[in-house]
Amino acid sequence: MGRLGRWRPVVVATVLATGVVGSSLAAALGDQGPPSVAESTPVTSCAPGSMPETTSVQGRVPSADFRSGRALKGYTCNTRMVSRHGRTGGFKVLRYTDAAGHTCAYYDSTLFLGKDVVTNLLNGTGLGVVVLDMSDPAHPRKTANLVSPAMLSPHESLLLNEPRGLLAGVMGTAATAPGILDVYDVRTDCRHPRLLSSSPAGVLGHESGWSPDGMTFWASGAAGFTMTAVDLSDPRRPRTIRTYPGVVSHGLRFSPDGRTMYVADMGTPSVHSILDNPGLRIYDVSQVQDRVGHPDIKLLSELHWDDASIPQVAQPFTSGGRDYVLEVDEFTDYFGDGLTKIFQKDAPVGAARIIDVDDPQHPFVVSDLRLQVHDQQYRTDDVLSDRGARSPVQGYAAHYCSVPTQADPQIAACSMIASGLRLFDISDVAHPKEVGYFNMPSNAGGWAMSQPAWDVGNHSVWYTDGNNGFFDVALDGDARALLDR
């Protein structure tokens, strides 16, 4: 049954965005007992030819490996590098094949506004969103840099809608920014995206979401406490539908029909914490999808878990006929208890989890995807002395996950910052296990923070590391076998 004792859901039966609260699920179902501590995912065995991690702590890159030079050789398990590009990277890697059969990669080239300007100009990466022709995966070829206002700093908002062949992003920063929304056509020629519009329709920007039909783009304002729905039925003329206030939201993802929205809720400012009580919110957004005049959204439920840090995104998928989301938290909860736990050993590391949302009014946590290095028992002074381990925006934590298909995926890939790209067998959602990893740090350490993209036909996954660029990584052994199921 997985880890059902851990969840602490609060159901809100028909709560409008204005805040009408219903009964709690905990009251309805009774006492579930004390929550248990999240445990790390079982460790995989590595096929011959791998270069496994050098300590017994899953996910760790010790300082001694940097001093000896071992870290610069990288760490691989059931993976191998096909190619790389550039020396920087941001928060998203996207893959698209256009109408003519060209396959392209898109990645934002910096983690923070202005951080990599000089580096990228000197090394040829260029600014903004990088476009790669991936016709020959072993030799990526840059064909364009997208440098319109939002693409220069999309932060975490860069997303692609495949059915319509539209690439979009909102100007953003680590907090928020004026929501200039840029929309590109990539269907015609993915190697040379064509700007269709650049407008302030997004209101505020940080993360985002696409309705599956590509008719609505959502901008999340994060520190602006807003979610804004934008009509893109005509991508040349974006129209703001409505802005919904009051939620410190990260990623916004949707059910296949676009009528249910899964919001990574960063938490609420309070006297106890900068961001208190984070979790998952599930909304009925049917009125937006149906273009009802001045549409409301209904809050169906909230879910909180005890080891949460900062929820980043909840990616929907199905398994065995049930609906789930793969939710990932970023960083550690260094905002906990009024900042008293910043950089502390007992600061929660949320990592990732699988949540059953088959009944959107009664979600519950099924299992965790996390590494030993995330667990409190391994957060020793020695481990926290590793390169970048005490950084509030780096260290041993997670940031983004993805699956190769929304229907019955067998494998998931997660960027886990200093621990690199991690691969998990999720064929049994209640009992995931790690089946591979790829980590190629530089002297500055590893900074894997991007949403990975999948090249299933070539048994590969693409991601970026903020210190080390774009990687095309081939899967071997047990990891490869999962893509063939």
Automatic annotation (TrEMBL):
Residues 1-26 form the signal peptide. The keyword Signal applies. The keyword Magnesium does not apply. Residues 31-60 are annotated as: Disordered. InterPro entries: WD40/YVTN_repeat-like_dom_sf. Keywords: Signal. This is LVIVD repeat-containing protein. It comes from Nocardioides panacisoli.
